[in-house]
Amino acid sequence: MSHIVFGRVIHSSLPSTTNFIMASKAAQKRLSKEYVAMQKEPPPFVWAAPDEKNILTWNYIIRGPPDSPFAGGEYHGVLLFPPEYPFKPPGIKMFTPSGRFQPDRKICFSMSDFHPGSWNPAWSVATILTGLLSFMLSDEMTTGSVTSSESHKRAFAARSHSWNITQQRFKDAFPEYCTPVMRDLPNMGEKERGKPDNPPIPNFVNPPPVSVSSSTSSFASITSTHSGTFSLPIILSPRSSHRRLAQAPSQANNTSNSNSLAKPDDPNRAAAPAPGWAAAWRHFFYEKWRLCAFIALAVMLSRFTTRT
C-alpha cells in the first residue's frame, strides 16, 4: 500500500522483502500504521515520514512554535528505530543547527534509547516528536544539548530553512519542502490556538430572515444589520407563529431588495434607519392582549362548564 503526499509516493507497508529485512514483523506493522495515522492527524508543528528504503529510519521536521525563540525555524532530524520496536525506544538526532541541540548527535531524553527503562511501548512517532518539541522548548541540559542565548536561537531559526535546502539529506527526505519560501506543515497549530479553519464572512447586504419557533412561547429576533443587533422577546400563539413564518420570506426579500440599492462599503452611504420601536411595542402589547383574552375566555368557559 502506498500513499501520495504532496505528489510524492511513500510506502506505508512492506513493498518488498529486501527493503525492510532488518525490521521485525511487529515493527513493520506498527510503523506502517503510525505513518497512516501521521497522515490523517499530524501533531502540531510536526511532520515525519519513513525512509523509502528502510522503514526503521524516519525523517522528521519540527517547526518552531510562535512566541518561542524558535519561531519561524525549520528543524530537520531523524528517528532511528531498533528492529524490536515498539518494545525498545529509538535513537533521536537533529541535523539543523538550532542553538538547543548539537547537530547530528544523539539526544538524551526520556523517550530516547538513552532511557530504555522508562520507555512505554504505547508511545508512537507522534508522541515521541511532540515530546521532543516540548523538551526543545525547555532549558534542561542533557547529552546532546547546548547552551545559547535567545538571540542566538532566533538567529539560527531565521536561517534554518536556507541551511536545510542546501543539505542533500533534506533534499532526499523532503523534496516537496525544498522551496525558496518555507512551506507550512499540514498542522501549524491553528486548532490549538483557537483559530477556525474557515472563518465566517459577515453578510452586510442580505440580513438573515427572522426565525420563529413553533412552540406557544417563542421568541422572535429583530435584527438591525447596520446599527447593531438586538432581540425583543415577543410571545406568540401557535396561529400567529405560523402566520409569521409565512410572512418571513417576503419580508426578507423586501429587505434584500432595499439593501441592494447601495453597497456596504460606500463611504457616502447614509445609515439605514433602525426598525420602528413603536411598531414593535404595539405588536408586543397586541399579542399579549390576545393571549390574556384567550386565557380569560378559557377560564370563563371552564367555570361555566363546572356550574352546569
From TrEMBL:
Compartments in which it is found: Endoplasmic reticulum membrane
UBC core domain boundaries: 26-183
Keywords: ATP-binding, Endoplasmic reticulum, Membrane, Nucleotide-binding, Transferase, Transmembrane, Transmembrane helix, Ubl conjugation pathway
Ranges of biased composition (kind: Polar residues): 248-261
Statement: the UniProt record of this protein carries the keyword Aminoacyl-tRNA synthetase: no
Assigned EC number: 2.3.2.23
Chief site of localization: endoplasmic reticulum
Highest taxon listed in the record's lineage: Eukaryota
UniProt GO cellular component terms: endoplasmic reticulum membrane
Keyword Lipid metabolism part of the UniProt annotation: no
Composition-biased stretches (Pro residues): 197-209
Xref: PROSITE patterns: UBC_2
Region (Disordered): 185-209, 241-273
An example molecular function term from Gene Ontology annotations: ATP binding
Protein name: Ubiquitin-conjugating enzyme E2 6
Organism of derivation: Gymnopilus dilepis
